[in-house]
Amino acid sequence: MEEAVTVFEGEQTDILAYQSSYLDRGFAHEFQVRQITFYSSKHWYRPLTPDTIKEITADAESTPFKEVPMPEDAEIGTFGCMALMTLRSDMEKNGKGFAAGSLVALPMDELMEDNWSNATELFTPTPSRSLSHQTECKDFIILKILEDVKTVLEFHKYDPDTRTFVQQSGGEGAAVLVGEDVGVGSHCRDSSFDNTLWLMRDGYLVPDALEMASAEDCCASSKPVKAKPAMFNADGLCVVQHFATSLDGTKIPYFVIRRKDVKFDGTNPVLLDAYGGFEISMLPGYSAGVGAGWLERGGIKVIANIRGGGEYGPK
Prior knowledge:
The chain is mainly β.
């Protein structure tokens, strides 16, 4: 340790500091990051080559770092030579406005020059739509979007000639029903290997299931791989979504899991769950305990998507 060379360090008040380099679809990137608070950070960047990453250690690399001109509360990633930035607050660059909750793509070299003229929004939020998650594979970015807490998948294919992403049509086979959810992930540790994807499905009444699909057809068809057995009897049960109106007029969605033939006479026992913090969303998920211990016995379960969660984005 006495021979170790310090290449980067954060401030005493930071909650995290790190330096990392990696290869991404033929391009080499290196970042230094100071995580200042839970939602704010500073980034420094230097472009490298695949050869320099292999041959030159970080302390011997002469290419200087340059601070990334981005808001401290934004998050950044890459896709080949492109920068992908998720915004937590409204931003204006080069006379263009970008809304909080947007996913913005632009060439990394242009970002470092603070040139946003070719920046495009892969996702723009609306009052009912927010970006929940994004996944990359060889040629695609897959966006998991919540539309009033119902999952929608969007597929954007990268064109290296124009350095742009083009949204693809199709994929109706990946449609998600009310009360169900789907997660998407690359099937390989190296997401740039191919366009094969894992689909992870579950729901309030649907046990976890794993499927294999492809971004090439926008997951229009999938192959079942494995599924958990049902842990309770879901026959005669249903999931519906309603909205409650808050005192300030805001519509708050909530899911109700109940028997189809329930009598609405005010005598039904109800368990209500709600959580609103750290932008954590209350999405549909399978619970053997709730099913066997409550729903099978005639109880009603309600999941409320209150403010503070991530269902409607950072705003």
